[in-house]
Amino acid sequence: MPELPEVEITRRGLAAHLPGRMVSDVIVRDRRLRLPVTADLAGKLIGDSLIGIDRRGKYLLLRFGRGSLLAHLGMSGNLRVLPADAPARKHDHIDILFGKLALRYSDPRRFGLMLWLQGDGSDHPLLAALGVEPLGDAFSADWLFQATRGRRCAIKLLLMDSHVVVGIGNIYASESLFRAGIRPRTAACRLTRAQCARLVPAVCDTLTDALAAGGSTLRDFHSAEGQSGCFQQQYFVYDRAGTACRVCDSPIRGLRLGQRSTYYCPRCQK
């Protein structure tokens, strides 16, 4: 599933081409996404201009004069900017046309969504309960220390809880914990202030490095321009079980945590 860096890269790509343009047509080839695309989507969008594009966690909000279009990429989706006459492929479900350009939503598994919201959408149930942004000012060592008090779940699972902090999925939680020298099964409530002071910048640095590398492309992710990310070439632990740690040469270990594959170095992470 695309995580925060991949969604932010998509946002930046779309923002480079589409704001200020008016919607000329909407083509919905398949409404069967995680939530069905409403039949009146074209009526909501045609004739309105895109003002800007925001990101909240793993969601994108396309801001129009009449409201906002909420988009989520699901497990395998992507949004690309293409010529309006580019032939549609099998899993290309929605085109929003801006004159000679098309914003095309593709999703082989159809776990994503595209919903029309009135206003800015901040009170929508999918957005209202989201936690802090890890690249925002609110994400600090003091905040994390307080947020972990009384939480007995593994710290990796807390980092992946979107009600606590948004956008950190399996890949970047594993990589951040390696950089901070903390084992993923450590109970969140047992983190010390010193560990929180290491983990917050580790998360920020991991996400920032992933953004600089164009995100991670393991299967389906491509940017709005159709480019693959290469951050997977920099992984310290994720999906590297049995291979040598890049820092200490110890074999990377894998385990199941919260029904997700988890990776760590037994020597570098205590």
TrEMBL record:
Presence of the UniProt keyword Isomerase in the record? no
Residues at which DNA binds:
H91, R109, R151
The GO biological-process annotations, alphabetized, read as:
base-excision repair
Q: What is its EC number?
A: 3.2.2.23, 4.2.99.18
What does this protein do, in the record's words? Answer: Involved in base excision repair of DNA damaged by oxidation or by mutagenic agents. Acts as DNA glycosylase that recognizes and removes damaged bases. Has a preference for oxidized purines, such as 7,8-dihydro-8-oxoguanine (8-oxoG). Has AP (apurinic/apyrimidinic) lyase activity and introduces nicks in the DNA strand. Cleaves the DNA backbone by beta-delta elimination to generate a single-strand break at the site of the removed base with both 3'- and 5'-phosphates.
Please give the family membership noted in the entry. Answer: Belongs to the FPG family.
Assembly, in brief, is: Monomer.
Protein name (record): Formamidopyrimidine-DNA glycosylase
Classification lineage: Bacteria, Pseudomonadati, Pseudomonadota, Betaproteobacteria, Nitrosomonadales
